[in-house]
Amino acid sequence: MALTANGVTWAGLACNIVLSAGKIAAGLIFASQAILADGLHGASDMITDLVVLLGLKASQRDPDRTHPYGHRRIATLASMFVGAALLAAAAIIAFGAIGSLRQGACPVVSIIPFCLAAITIPVKEILFRLTRLVARRDDNIALRANAWHHRSDALTSIAAAAGLAGVAIGGRQWAFLDALTGIVLSAFLAIVAVKIMHRAAGELVDRAPGQAAIDGIRTVLRRTEGVRDFHALRARLVGGKVAMDVHILVDPDLTVAQGHEIATQLKRHIITSEQRVVEVVVHVEPA
To answer: What is the mean pLDDT of residues 186-201?
Structure first.
């Protein structure tokens, strides 16, 4: 059975609920700051999962009177929110880690917090890989951002597990490992968050797709029968997809119907050319 965007996101939400509830409870019961912070970070994932689910549903709606160009940019907004949430999580982790370095951490007397952190690592890594796989297949910017949020949870769980293991082995003298690893990983998460937000912002300001996509569109234009030349080719990213318009030059002796047929064939060829194009506007001009 093929994975779907909604399916993989619902799976992530279910895992986040179970893992976060267990880690927050363990943090409160066993006075473990590391597992409590890890649980709170996982709880933030639940919010982003819900945002992505709402964004996926809204972005797939058909154009209407108030949104004649469709709703694909809602997925871009969802991606921007996920990036911002990831950046905030990185800041919170760094702030807490720096505070732990200054104050020192208390040894945790139970193995349960370590086990919860260790279990989270493979679960969240699997969710990351599955979500990224679907995001690449569907070319979904919001789903790609959510995949990295899963990876961020796995990384913070590594930090928590390392700190808890260090405390269990070396006591107070090794308790700094938790905070030190948290600071390093928070810097990595911040870089990922900025990249996600930069890509989303690029779509909001109509950034063009990569040169490979433009070259692929040009190739289709040159190969379409009846197109003598073209100019004013423009393309922009919308929700991870491409919307474009172009002026083509055709034989001036053709009828309007014949020129329209060439434009229709061109649209069909471009959309089926695997260049992520979902919208094509063609202006027909006499050569």
So the answer is: 81
CA–CA dist 207, 201 (Å, integer): 9
Q: Is the pLDDT score of 206 beyond 80? A: yes
Contact 178, 164 (CB under 8 A): yes
| Residue-range domains of the chain with CATH | 5-204 (1.20.1510.10), 211-286 (3.30.70.1350)
Dihedral (CA of 174, 179, 182, 183) sign: negative
| pLDDT for the residue numbered 172 | 65
The alpha carbon torsion through 240, 8, 87, 241 (nearest 10 deg) reads 0
Q: In this structure, how many other beta carbons lie within 10 angstroms of the beta carbon of residue 61?
A: 12
How far is residue 100's CA from residue 59's CA, in Å, rounded to a whole number? Answer: 42
Do the bridges between strand 277-286 and strand 241-250 make them parallel or antiparallel, or are there none, so unpaired? parallel
pLDDT at 210 exceeding the cut of 60:
yes
